[in-house]
Each structure stands twice: as structure tokens, then as C-alpha cells.
Amino acid sequence: MRVPVLLAAAWWMLAGAAAAAPRMKAGAARIDITPEGPIWMSGYAARNRPSEGVLTPLWAKALALEDARGHRAVIVTTDLIGLPMELTDLVAARAMEKYGLERASLVFNSSHTHTGPVVRGNLSVMESQQAPQRQAIEAYRRQLQEKLFQVIGGALADLAPAEIAFGSGEARFGVNRRQFTEKGVIIGVNPDGPTDPRVPVVRVTSPSGKVRAILFGYACHNTTLTAEFYQLSGDYAGYAQAELEREFPGAVALFLQLCGGDQNPHPRSRLEYAEQHGRTLAAEVARLARTPMQPAAGRIRAAYQVAALPFAPHTREQFEQELKDPNVFRQRRAALILKLYDERREPRLLRYPVQAVRLENGFTLIALGGEVVVDYALWAYRTWPRERLIVAGYSNDVACYIPSARVLREGGYEAVDSMIYYGQPGPFTEEVEARIQDAVRQVMRRIGR
Sorting pLDDT into bands at 50, 70 and 90, what band is 22? Predict the structure, then answer.
């Protein structure tokens, strides 16, 4: 009778060891996407010359996750103003062809640094109109497309057994910037406006406990460095990532821009403030990463769809009149829209990407396109109060600001004026909020929430 007992004991020991072994795999990679020479910078219409050197390198980074059934997801982050859908779709198609990676399982996010290069197809009205600079911008886009594909492959090649954990902290340097005055809403400081102080953190460690990657987010514009800065950098998010990679040698730190469309860092306009905000954010992320966090494991599920967001009615005559405006950016916007009228392609709807990626018993990432105001994140937290959510904007496409119905009624830059610089025909209708919320509910249902 002793032999069966010993065999049973051995079986239970092996079963216990198998249960304790990590069932998830993760991989991370990064690639330098800093332009090789001077290039037109994006984010501020006031700039009138190309970049003048580099403060910090710009990176594209990727985190790949794989569950026990082989389902995978890849999150790509970039130190850029934004990526257009035509670019992310091209890279996603190549990733599908080579790696079998479904479109729903691939997320692209941009930090929205305003000290980065122009990316063709984003804020096109702000681009330099001079031939040498336009050529440099086009060459950079071709290089960027290839590097995004490479970093996805690098993360997938790095897949190895891993333990994943989720936690959430807070940072308070982001403030609502929609300041109400007698002349209307301006970009300023509104201490009473809605904000999202959450700092979600995903920690990836090896079975031995070494930190391999840290994914973290914050809802705040990367605009500490204002228009008078002509050196390339990742702003506060770039400094935060660099600080974390010093704190955790060998790890890849990835920043997700959340729903910060109406949020600005405070204070700003000095280099030391960008460094300060970066240290503040990194310290909170590092604090969480060194504490016990909620284990995240289980099946990976993903869903992706494109909603249609209606623009307010407009006419050809409206833009023929705008073409005579003394403001050069209005002239450029009018010329773009009139060309579309000539081609019978006048824009009435915006194609809008909505995505959700869920790691069961872990966390759910909702990824929304455009410069999303904070109202959408606060709505998601209320709608799914028991879900560990990361609600990101600036994902898969950054075609314009995405205001809520409240912001549209109030007016101001995020609702109206910003559309000039994005080359869009004008504001959305208030229906935009309901359509986005409906699309989010649909992708959440498809992933089991």
C-alpha cells in the first residue's frame, strides 16, 4: 500500500507545481523613433521653424501578452502627437499577415507630446508648407511605419513566462484647462472642473520576480513644454518613462495617454516642470510596482469596431467664405474641405475606432480614438464600477478632439476651434456622445462585460 500513496503524493506535488507555474507569457520591446535631423514639430500653431536638437529620445514601445490558450494582445505606445488611422491600419494589416495578430488585439496609443515631430495625416493644417520640410515629414512617416512593425515583432519574439499584476494610484498635477470667462471658455486653469487623477499600472515580472515591463497611464496633455521649446522630447511622460527604466534596470516602461483632452499639466512652460511632473508620476508608479498588486491572469479577449460620428451640417459656401479669412489656418482648412467637395467626398461623418482588450481576472483596457475629454472616462468608471479599467484616448487614430455633449454645449477650443487645425469641417453634433457610449457598450459585451 505504500507505493500508491507515494505515487499519489508525487502526483499532487507535480500538480501543485504546475498550478503555481505562470500560465501567462509576456514580451516587451522598444525602438528609437527620434527623427535624424531637424523636422517640423507638431502641437502648436505658433511655431515657425523646424526642431533644434533633442532633449530626450523618442520611443515606440510594445508590450505583448499571451494567455494559456495562445490568445495574444499587443499594446504599442509612442512618444508622438498622434497616429492617423491610415497608418495604424497599414501596420496592423502587416502584423496580421506575418504574426496572425487580429486587429482587435493590437492597440496603438500616442502620448500626445507637443515636442515631437509632425506625423503626416495628423493635424495636417499645422504642417510646414515648404517643400524641403514636407519631404522630411514624408520620409519620417515611412520610417515610422517600418519601426512600428518592427517593435511589434520584437515584443512577440520576447514572449516568455511571466506574472502580471494590476494596481492603481493617483497623481494630481493634471488640471482641467477649460476656464470660464465673460468672453467664453478659454484654455487656462479650472480647479473646479472634472479631472481623472487615476494612475493605472500593469506590472510584468519574470517567474523569479524581476520586473520586465511596466505599463502605466495618466490623463493629462503632454504640454508642459510650450510653443517656445524647439527641442524634441517626450515631455513629462518621456521623463517618467526614463526614470522608471533607471529604477528598474532592464525593464521597458510604457506610457498610455488616457482621456486627457481637456487636461493640462500645472504648472507648465519651464523645463524643470516637465522633469518635476515626470518624477512625480514615476514615483507613484514605482511605489505601486514595489507593493503587492492584484494578480492578473486568464483568457485574453478583444473587440474592435468603427463608429460613425456626425459633424454638424455645413455647406460649400461656408468654406468659400472661410477661404477669404485672414487666418492662414482657416484658409488651409477651407482649401482642404473645398477639395473634398470638388471630389464629392465632403465629410459628414468621422470614422471612429473603439476597442476593448480584457485580461480575465485582471484588467480591461478601453481604447478610444482622438483627443478624448475626461467625461468619457468618468462615465466608464460609473458604468462598470467593479471593473479594473484603463480608459485611454489617443488610440488607433487621432483625427480631432472628441468632446462630450456637455463640452459641445459649453463651446471653446475642444468643441470648435481645434477642428480648424485638424482640417475637419466643424464641430460634431451632440449625438457624438451617445454614439461613442453605445460603441463602448458593444465592445464590452463582446469581451464578456
Answer: low
